[in-house]
Amino acid sequence: MAAAQPWTANTTHFIAGTWTPATTGRTYPNRSPWSGHILGHAAAGDAEDTERAITAAHHAFPTWSRTRPAERQRVFLNAADLLEQRATHVLAALAAETGCGHHFGTVQLDFAVKLLRQAANLAYHPAGELLPSDTDGTQAMAVRKPVGVVAAIAPWNASLTLSGRAITGPLALGNTVVLKPSEEAPYTGGTLWAEILHQAGLPAGALNVITHAPGEAGAVGDTLLASPLVKRLNFTGSTPTGRRLAEKAGRHLKRVVLQLSGQNPLIVAADADLTHAVDAAVYGAFIHQGQVCMCARRIYVERPLADAFTERFAARAARLPTGDPADPATVIGPVINEWALALLDRRVKEAVGLGARVLAGGEPAPPCYPATVLTDVPDEAEIAQSETFGAVVVVETVDSAEEAVARANHTDLGLAASIITGDSRRGLRLAATLEAGIVHINDQPVNDEPQMPFGGVKDSGWGRFGLGFAAEEFCETQWVTVRDEPRTYPF
Ligand code: ADP
């Protein structure tokens, strides 16, 4: 049997419905995190390219925003079918470009297809409300209107779904979009979406994609933020980058939706089913080699279950198959790049230097970082303080779940959390005290569905994705009144 062809693609910008190289003609190599091979070359865009994309989106807005609901619905339903038909190709591309294994690839694909089908429905959602008025003869309305051009900046780690949700809600509500995928995922986070939606019938200019070389995101982001034609920006990525963007957005009084880092706790109560707790923790900590913003980073176990849990959990972690993301048996694939691998290594070594104990893993196996379990991590260690994007998790024993909640809340981040307990009512009571945008009881923290209000509190971000909630973020509400007869004024 012939060996499968390695996945390859050269990519350009997509502006006004046309595949367009960078104005300067520059490209950069898109490398596989597993093999290091060049998969293709991507356009290395700049501020000028970004301005062209914004102009295209601005010109497309009047037509797309007035497109009949049936037509908008048809585009998203077509796109869902096209994406499904290309499943094998998409999974291969995700593995090659981002080191995404088969399981997380199918999770992304499933989400993206559902997202498009739900977006098709959004075309028929009510566009406002009638409001009671105390002014006789006045009919009042709150009318929801698309804002115009929405900018979207997405990360590489779940490139298909995170770029998808960054553009689909805004488009379905009648906005036009400029998408800037991560430099690590120009195809699966950018080009692929343009291909599918264009083929599905989205008119030229409604979606534009700009890519850029590593280290050159600033010029694209700054242009998007400074343009008066861009009315909103949504960003998914790290808290430090999100904070910089929000500071700049403030200067331009531009509203932003921010989905940022997580330092997500998983709390195991003493009455938990041990097997379920271990299964959930292994999945929640190590899915996509720990490179999901919702991954469990800290596991707090009530003392009576702590030894048994920790022993079984560390043993399972140590056995997780590590290697080629194209092999369906692999659980721990490559880290996205050598800088991320070096950061993981440095943070684990720093924690160990401060007294942490390694219960599994703890040494890099380039380009992978094997599943690693630490305990006795002091609060001052970087790994205890901020999100560490990789297959490293901290397990600690607590005297009570309430203590776990207090420790979980003792961080600036508040994205997702989960609690495993035999008493789901107690779980609900604990959930109410957790400072997190998302809490799952008797599950691990990595979950998403297109219709759910996805987002964090504290430094994990502002605003919510989720199609039913996107209208809040990507529309303006206009108060309109109408009278059929003259009104009497006092002077
Ligand atoms: P990650 O660790 O996931 O790469 P980042 O926050 O660095 O997190 O990246 C998320 C997205 O933000 C990527 O698309 C990246 O290119 C983009 N980005 C990084 N720096 C900037 C910047 N200064 N302006 C705009 N976008 C940026």
From TrEMBL:
Keywords: NAD, Oxidoreductase. Pfam families: Aldedh. Residues 19-480 form the Aldehyde dehydrogenase domain. PANTHER family: BENZALDEHYDE DEHYDROGENASE YFMT (PTHR42986:SF1). Belongs to the aldehyde dehydrogenase family. This is Aldehyde dehydrogenase family protein.
